[in-house]
Design a protein that fits this description.
heterodimer, A: alpha/beta, 2 domains, 9-stranded mixed beta sheet, 18 strands, about 45% strand, globular, B: about 250 residues, Rossmann fold, 6-stranded mixed beta sheet
Chain lengths: ~375, ~250
């Protein structure tokens, strides 16, 4: 059957799996995704695998637990599956991993959740619910590595006046498949900084929605991705301005290198009638480092009220700037070093915005390692 | 001894209508201790000469030769030319987002010397160079040319000239867009450079104004891709009084 959807910026969800037919690839939300490489996550592959090791480092003051679905409070972000993969995850899982920060708590250290795929044949499903009580402040880092076929639903509930920084790092092995559906609700005067860093995996597709519960909330979404030959990295973002005086700022930057490297960035923003006085800006920049890559970048802005502070977007995909390289080289800097400087520079402002020092440092060296694969080998 | 020798240089650029010849046989020799000014109207090929010698990929050398102390410059890559001792101060310096001035300067110095400069003396040198050009010490933390005013871009070029200290400097309209104070500061930097032993300067300009502060030994008038006349500093005064009209007419007539 399928649901009657008038606009993909007004998705209609359902908990009933039968409302979500197997996608064909012609649907707006699936048209960029290589369905054949999803290993059946979108179709009927069993989600009964347990081949992911989970390690948690948590500071004082946070409750981290695996809770049975019935007691988990899942859905508190307003999560309703709008596609078959997330509906299947909702159906298949028996537990939810919860990270709960009580009200009026400032976590001194980040909560770090490390998930390592063990390379089993069976697909794995997971659920994560992060709740941050009112006027609390927390940083949560999820780091994915190893090999797995993994689908997860992630929810964030950020209480009034609370601050959450969530960093998700996809450092998967080359054969991993990761589909993630995430939804955040941001309380009155609360802020969410959502950072997605994707280097590894065969197919990584993240679908992140942010909504507000009260005025004055702010959402910042930052993304850094680096696609190598044959990799598909897709980020679908949706900021639903459903409350007045809210703000959102989206900046995603990616580099592509090697035959068949494919990145997709969809930046959807909806400004509802009631969302007066909001401000939103979204930007995607891609740097194409070699032939044979494809970067798709689609910003969408749907505006139902003109009574706003500002709304804008920008998207640019470019090759190495010959003038930049010439300038650096004319000062004696060799070609490889000049390319390295330009790529570093491209990511630098974004990395500086993350605001988690441990992550910023390791990212700089990861960018270095990615560059070493290709740029410094003199493929050009 | 340093000699930059340009012989019968012919250069064209690709356009929608095919290759267009810009330089039609330029011959010029610059020895160390000498400052040569190239003057000419817009579109005469002055900048093409500068960028061709520096190795910009847009320009296609179709004939002639360029040597620095006998070494074939045209066979060198862009960065090899810089390491051989050539420096081009650009008319429109390029923004490099995310790369700080201090990182850029250190990287360039390291590339030119083959080893990293000693940290303590280097920081001192950089601060001194910036200060002499009236650039704030925090200038080093800004991204290369990003958000710089026109004057800051030019002063940054000359700070590089002093810090990287090449053998032969080509200054492409370094004076354009500068107010009189900035022009004096920039000229003083160029004069400090050329007062050293073994330095040559090729100064490209549209106006005679900068020649009051940087006195050339030779002046060449550039028209339609060729040197139309050469002389001493007095030629600049004649141009100041009479302009380029007679050369342009001669060129069209010819």
């Amino acid at each position: 059957m399928g649901l009657e959807v008038t606009s993909h910026l007004h998705p209609v969800g359902s908990f009933d799996l039968s409302d979500h037919p197997v996608p064909t690839g012609r649907e707006e939300v699936w048209r960029f995704t290589p369905l054949k490489r999803l290993k059946g996550l979108h179709d009927g592959a069993a989600l009964t695998g347990d081949g992911i090791d989970l390690k948690v480092e948590a500071p004082e003051g946070v409750n981290v637990a695996r809770v049975d679905v019935a007691d988990s409070g899942r859905g508190r972000s307003g999560f309703v599956p709008t596609d078959r993969v997330s509906a299947r995850v909702w159906d298949a899982t028996t537990g939810v991993f919860t990270v709960d920060v009580p009200a009026d708590t400032e976590l001194a250290e980040p909560v770090v959740v490390s998930l390592t795929g063990q390379g089993g044949d069976e697909a794995v499903a997971g659920q994560l619910l992060v709740t941050v009580g009112s006027h609390s402040s927390a940083t949560v880092v999820a780091r994915f590595q190893g090999s797995a076929t993994f689908a997860d639903n992630v929810e964030f509930v950020v209480g009034d006046g609370a601050r959450l920084t969530y960093v998700t790092i996809q450092d998967w092995d080359d054969d991993a498949v990761h589909h993630s559906t995430q939804r955040a609700v941001v309380g009155r005067d609360a802020s969410l900084k959502h950072v997605a860093v994707t280097f590894g995996g065969d197919v990584v597709r993240h679908d992140v929605t942010a909504t507000y519960d009260g005025s004055g909330g702010s959402v910042e979404m930052l993304g850094l991705y680096f696609a190598d030959a044959g990799q598909h990295i897709e980020h679908r973002l949706f900021v639903d301005h459903n409350e007045p005086k809210t703000s959102s700022n989206v900046l995603y930057k990616g580099a592509l290198q090697g035959q068949g490297a494919h990145t997709v960035w969809i930046g959807n923003v909806l400004i509802r009638k009631e969302a007066e006085g909001i401000e939103t800006y979204e930007e995607n920049r891609n740097l194409v480092l070699s032939d044979g890559c494809q970067a798709d970048s689609v910003p969408n802005l749907e505006i139902e009220t003109g009574e706003i502070e500002g709304a804008g977007h920008a998207s640019a995909t470019a090759r190495f700037d010959d003038e930049q390289l010439f300038y650096l080289r004319s000062r004696g800097v060799g070609e490889k070093e000049a390319r390295r400087l330009v790529v570093h520079g491209f990511f630098t402002d974004l990395i500086r915005k993350i605001g988690v020092p441990e992550i910023e440092e390791s990212l700089t060296s990861t960018v270095e390692a990615e560059l070493a694969k290709n740029v410094l080998e003199g493929v050009f | 001894m340093t000699t930059l020798e340009i012989k019968d240089l012919q250069v064209s650029v690709a356009t929608d209508d095919g290759a267009k010849e810009i330089l039609k046989g330029v011959t010029l020799t610059i020895k160390d201790g000498e400052t040569h000014a190239i003057m000419g109207p817009n579109g005469s090929g002055k900048s093409t000469l500068a960028y061709s010698v520096a190795g910009h990929p847009k320009y296609d050398v179709t004939g002639g030769s360029v040597t620095l102390d006998g070494e074939d410059v045209l066979a060198m890559s862009v960065d090899e030319r810089a390491r051989a001792g050539l420096f081009l101060a650009m008319q429109y310096p390029v923004e490099v987002p995310g790369v700080s001035v201090s990182n850029f300067l250190r990287t360039a110095k390291t590339a030119l010397d083959g080893e990293a400069p000693k940290l303590r003396t280097w920081v001192k040198d950089v601060n001194a160079a910036l200060e002499q050009l009236n650039l704030d010490p925090t200038f080093g933390t800004r991204n290369v040319n990003e958000g710089f005013s026109g004057g800051e871009k030019k002063r940054h070029e000359i700070a590089q000239l002093e810090l990287l200290n090449p053998k032969m400097a080509i200054l492409d309209e370094t004076d354009s867009g500068l107010d009189i104070d900035a022009l004096k500061v920039v000229s003083a930097g160029v004069n400090r450079f050329r007062e050293q032993e073994g330095k040559g300067v090729l100064l490209i300009t549209h106006y005679t104004r900068i020649l009051r502060y940087i006195e050339p030994d030779f002046v060449h008038v550039f028209v339609d891709g060729r040197i139309a006349e050469q002389g001493g500093p007095e030629l600049a005064d004649a141009l100041e009084a009479e302009g380029y009209d007679k050369y342009i007419k001669a060129s069209i007539g010819g």
